[in-house]
Amino acid sequence: MNGSTFAVGAVAGLKGYANPISIARRLSHERFNNFLVGNGASQFASEQHFTAKNMLTAESKQVWEARVAEVKAKHLSPYAGHDKVSMIALDHQQQMTVGTSTSGLFMKHPGRSGDSPLPGAGYYADSLIGAATATGLGEDLMKRPLSYEIVRLMGTGLSPQAACDQAVYPFIKDLRQRFGKAGELSYIAMNNEGEWGIATNVEFTFAVGDENHPAKAYIAYPNENKTKATYKVIE
Predict the structure, then answer these.
(1) How confident is the model at residue 109 (pLDDT cuts 50, 70, 90)?
(2) How far apart are CA 164 and CA 155, in angstroms?
(3) At 29, is the secondary structure helix, strand, or coil?
């Protein structure tokens, strides 16, 4: 999502292309058809001369087989963990862009899509204010569009950290009370001054950097009640 123009591009259920976010970015330049799924997304990618690629490598197959064996041997939930990559960018003109990319929930049902392609839920950007993006269990992240809500709260004058805290933790409480449980939910946010904040109910890693400060990796931990998080630099 381009925070200066609100242009959005998204794909879901795309097969056979290595960099779906590049295809999504191309879609964001279109006036219509900004969100494509399945065969339609693949057809667009082909028409735009993106290079098709077999994504089932020997290495990825080996990782998948090992994970299947681990789930069976340790009686784990096949849906534990998440692998989304989310990023917020800010340039010298205070223009902002946000993007997400994921291969999806492990052992998901064919056709399943989470929050990643959905504006407002998986991501949101407004260059006059800031941007936010999420990672975690898409089924729960879609239940309230908190990426948009965090940006809206920053627009009222809250810092990115205060906006994350105010939006995310009450929702986690609501989910537990009304839905019975809350999955893994993590958010990052940045305003157009480069200030940032995070909120999470699980152990969560993220990185921050700019041209004057080499990127640093952080790890965040929620408190026992899942009402606040602390973080520290990963040494």
Answers:
(1) confident
(2) 12
(3) coil
Q: 88-106+119-233 belongs to which homologous superfamily?
A: (Glycosyl)asparaginase (3.60.20.30)
Q: Which residues contact 155 (CB under 8 A, 6 or more apart)?
A: 126, 128, 129, 130
- Binding site per annotation, positions for substrate: 112-115, 135-138
Q: Which residues are part of a known binding site?
A: 112-115, 135-138
pTM value surpassing 0.90: yes
The answer to whether the beta carbons of residues 41 and 121 sit under 8 Å apart is no
CA–CA dist 67, 61 (Å, integer): 10
Q: So where are the chain's domains?
A: 88-106+119-233
β partners of residue 88: 98
The pLDDT of 48-67, averaged and rounded, is 91
Give me the count of residues in the chain.
235
